[in-house]
Inverse folding.
């Protein structure tokens, strides 16, 4: 398939994802949670399809396969988190299961980045420390309290901080536009999950935070898919 066609279809999927996310948020505002569940799944299928479409453009096939699998796990995590609203009595179970799916996806992103061989430790270490420090500070400002899951949440944020740092370390060690866009995606992921935890476990949560979680999250996944495709 010509690259111009792939890029056109990719843009179409991005637009479709944006429109479906808007529809999903509208259903969530109306507390139509089952409808929201299916619309959220459709939005996830859009970023997976975009990733699969971009995959053949990636010069590193292992990087592409790991990234696409990470995107698929992101959809699984999405849907598990969405089930919390349909089955509120099992909220913590679905939250933990969804978080686990996302964590495995981030580990795959880590291995994909590590496989590039371009990560600069001089960027990785301070970036990881800064990401975790800012996450902890934001949690304290918002008075986020994960209760019995506090240790797991902290570990998850540490994982996201490391993956984000690896992405920026890889981008710094390469002239690849794809790695730079990928790094922007991991940064949006870190921001999104910080807001998510504050929304779920802080007394200072607002409905606007719920929207911000999803705007930054879908931006993150689309950037990760686009970054893979730009790794020419």
């Amino acid at each position: 398939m010509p690259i111009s066609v792939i890029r056109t279809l990719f843009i179409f999927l991005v637009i479709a994802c944006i429109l479906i996310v808007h529809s999903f948020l509208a259903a969530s505002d109306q507390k139509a949670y089952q409808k929201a569940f299916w619309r959220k799944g459709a939005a996830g299928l859009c970023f997976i399809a975009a990733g699969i479409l971009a995959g053949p453009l990636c010069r590193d096939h292992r990087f592409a396969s790991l990234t696409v699998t990470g995107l698929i796990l992101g959809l699984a995590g999405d849907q598990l988190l969405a089930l919390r609203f349909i089955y509120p009595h099992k909220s913590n179970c679905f939250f933990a299961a969804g978080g686990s799916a996302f964590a495995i996806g981030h580990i795959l992103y880590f291995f994909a980045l590590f496989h590039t061989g371009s990560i600069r430790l001089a960027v990785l270490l301070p970036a990881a420390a800064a990401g975790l420090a800012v996450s902890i500070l934001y949690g304290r400002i918002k008075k986020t309290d994960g209760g019995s899951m506090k240790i797991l949440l902290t570990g998850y944020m540490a994982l996201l901080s490391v993956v984000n740092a690896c992405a920026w370390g890889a981008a710094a060690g390469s002239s690849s536009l794809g790695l730079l866009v990928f790094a922007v995606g991991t940064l949006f992921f870190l921001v999104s999950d910080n807001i998510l935890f504050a929304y779920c476990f802080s007394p200072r949560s607002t409905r606007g935070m719920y929207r911000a979680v999803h705007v930054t999250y879908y931006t993150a996944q689309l950037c990760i898919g686009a970054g893979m495709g730009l790794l020419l």
Remarks:
- The chain is about 85% helix and 0% strand.
- Helices lie at 3-29, 33-54, 61-86, 91-116, 121-142, 150-172, 177-201, 207-229.
- Residues 3-29 form the longest helix (27 residues).
